[in-house]
Specification:
alpha/beta; Rossmann fold; six-stranded parallel sheet
Length: 195
């Protein structure tokens, strides 16, 4: 990822705004997102959920509408956001409740931008992100958030950014990819055999 684009804003303050990013579809496990946020809001009503993305399934949109009518929670739909670094600036956490992902780019963006991650333990999440940020259900999600509240937020932000830089820095990955391509280009092409 481009670490020049995603930075921790100067003087970033603690925030009780939780970010969720991406198309809203079954893969993002929207019911778990709502139940996790409901649990967090019951613990502290100052928390709010901010969603950058769009619904892709009218059934899930109907579920959201129905859930939020029965549970009036501060959930804000910001639609498709072009300037993600600015959107992340006032958020404190980034949440992923996905069923599966290849990488879940918004978690890396959020961590590089100073947000603390809350990550559902989907298959492979522990390979990509620190286990300390994984949760299995709404209760564990709340406990994770409560632990993060007590931590040294500045230190965590820096550690998280370094983690992303060490593993996913775009410049390093491009260099590695170019070296791989150059190495492959130098190898002789195997002679074809007639069968």
């Amino acid at each position: 990822m481009n670490l020049e684009r995603f930075t921790i804003p100067q003087g970033k303050q603690r925030s009780k705004k939780i970010a969720s990013v991406g198309y809203i579809n079954y893969k993002k496990n929207p019911a778990l997102l709502l139940y996790c946020f409901k649990k967090i809001h019951e613990y502290d009503s100052e928390y709010s959920l901010h969603i950058a993305g769009q619904h892709q399934d009218s059934r899930i949109q109907l579920y959201f509408d129905h859930f939020l009518r029965k549970n009036p929670l501060p959930v804000y739909f910001d639609g498709w956001v072009e300037d993600m670094p600015s959107w992340y600036a006032d958020k404190g956490y980034v949440i992923s409740t996905s069923l599966f992902e290849s990488f879940h780019y918004s978690i890396a963006e959020g961590m590089a931008s100073g947000l603390l991650p809350l990550i559902h333990d989907w298959y492979g999440a522990d390979f990509l992100y620190p286990r300390d940020y994984l949760f299995s259900d709404p209760g564990v999600c709340l406990e994770l958030l409560r632990q993060l509240e007590k931590s040294d937020i500045r230190e965590r932000r820096q550690t998280n950014r370094q983690y992303i830089a060490r593993r996913y820095n775009q410049n390093d990955k491009v260099s590695e990819l170019m070296a791989l391509i150059e190495g492959l280009a130098r190898q002789p092409i195997a002679a074809q055999t007639k069968g």
